Amino acid sequence: MNKHYNRLIEPYLINLLKEFPAVAIEGVKGVGKTVSTKRIAATVFELDRPKDYDQVLNMPDILVAKPAPVLIDEWQRIPAVWDYVRRAVDDDVKPGSFLLTGSIACTDTNIHSGAGRIVRRRMYPLSLAERDIEKATVSITELLSSSEPFSHAIYGKTDIGSKDYINEIAASGLPGLRKYSVENRKIALDSFFSNLLSHDFKQQGIRIRQPETLLRWLRAYASAVSTDAGYMEILDASTGGENNKPAAKTTIAYREALENLWLLDELSPWVDGENFFAGLKMSPKHYLADPAFAVYLLGLDEKILAGGSGWPSQAERFDEKYGSLLGRLFESLIHLSLNTYANVNNARLFFVKTHKGDREVDFIIQKDSKIIACEVKFSPSAGMSDGKHLKWLINKLGKDCRDAMIITAGGVAYRRADGIAVVPAALLGA
């Protein structure tokens, strides 16, 4: 049986529906959109079911005739539904009327964006706090709302350690995959990516003439996880330096299609709005929607990750410049979790890096003018020499920096004498 997971986005959506007439939830297939929204909805139309599809296609007025909230699952199967909901909002339907879910971003330019009418929110795979492996003791919400910077108590102990985090990296945040054994999870992911190439790309009007070329690019991208490697660097890694590499135009089309499927989850650099900095880097950092995707694409598993050997050649290539793959996969797991914690706080996630590369902070969570800075260290401890880039950022931002932390694989949460918090990843939550 599928395990029940309490998703942080569910109470957040219930709160949104108190004021907004229509909310769209987007995210990669299998993330749990349908399960979570069904718990909230009074009426459900699943457009991948023929009966529901025919009803909505031929009698769209049924959407306003049924008890609300009305869930329209996989709405992009009937793109006109989006405009119908938008017009219903214009006609002043009540708050909490519609929930829409979609696994493919609609790129039809004939459809109105919905701006100002339909609120769009992203659903991410299970964060660490949602996986029921530990009870969080450090809250992003509380840190953001603390009356004074660096004043909130940091505490907690956990037995979760490096081996457990390796298992979580590979186990996936897609609820349906977590029930499988290691071997059967690989089979399920084979099917996931096969369907992606054979079906989901076609829904976007893209024909994959050379599926292996796309997979090679995806493997190279997975090798570059948690880096800001240039796209040409990723392309070179995917072709082993061959001269007959695919055209840049082709790889751009691939990348856009993968983003429309919510498979890629690139992190934007923070833009300095107060002129504190000069020369901030503007290129994004690369992440997949789930670090387990990278593990699968690179042919790895828990045993190989724990042994630290057997990396594919592309990963070793990026290791030389950006650090060990295992450390970068742990950072990807933290990225996944922080995305959820920021999302339910109406905050945004960024990273900071100078153009020269001499200063870098892995993540910053920003809500209005309040910022929490985070470094990630796949280690059971954090020495006093760690966090020098956090101190640099704190000095630049002043009171706008509400807190700073080093997120580790350790066992104890505490605040250091210099004010920086040390927080085991399993103890951090929304």
Summary, kept brief:
The protein is of the alpha/beta class and 430 residues long.
Describe the structure.
α1 crosses α2 (33-40), α7 crosses α15 and α9 packs parallel to α14 (313-322). This protein has 2 domains: 9-122, 3-Layer(aba) Sandwich (Rossmann fold), CATH 3.40.50; 128-429, no CATH class. The model has no long low-confidence stretch (mean pLDDT 90). The protein has helices spanning 9-16, 33-40, 50-58, 62-65, 80-90, 140-145, 162-171, 182-203, 211-223, 231-239, 248-260, 291-297, 302-307, 313-322, 325-343, 388-397; strands at residues 22-26, 43-46, 70-73, 98-102, 118-122, 138-139, 348-353, 360-367, 370-377, 401-408, 414-415, 421-424, 428-429. The radius of gyration is 22 Å and the shape is globular. It has 430 residues and is α/β, with parallel strands linked by helices.
Number of domains: 2
Helix proportion of residues, in percent?
Answer: 25-40%
Shape: globular
Query: Secondary-structure element sequence?
Result: HEHEHHEHEEEHHHHHHHHHHEEEHEEEE
Which runs of at least 5 residues are low in confidence (pLDDT < 50)?
none
The DSSP helix count reads 16
Report the β-strand fraction as a percent range.
5-15%
Distance between the termini: 27 Å
Sheet with most strands: strand arrangement: 7-8-9-10-12-11
What radius of gyration results from the CA coordinates? 22 Å
**What's the number of extended β-strand segments?**
13
The biggest sheet, with number of strands, parallel, antiparallel or mixed sense and barrel status, is: 6 strands, mixed
Structural class: alpha/beta
Q: pLDDT average, as an integer?
A: 90
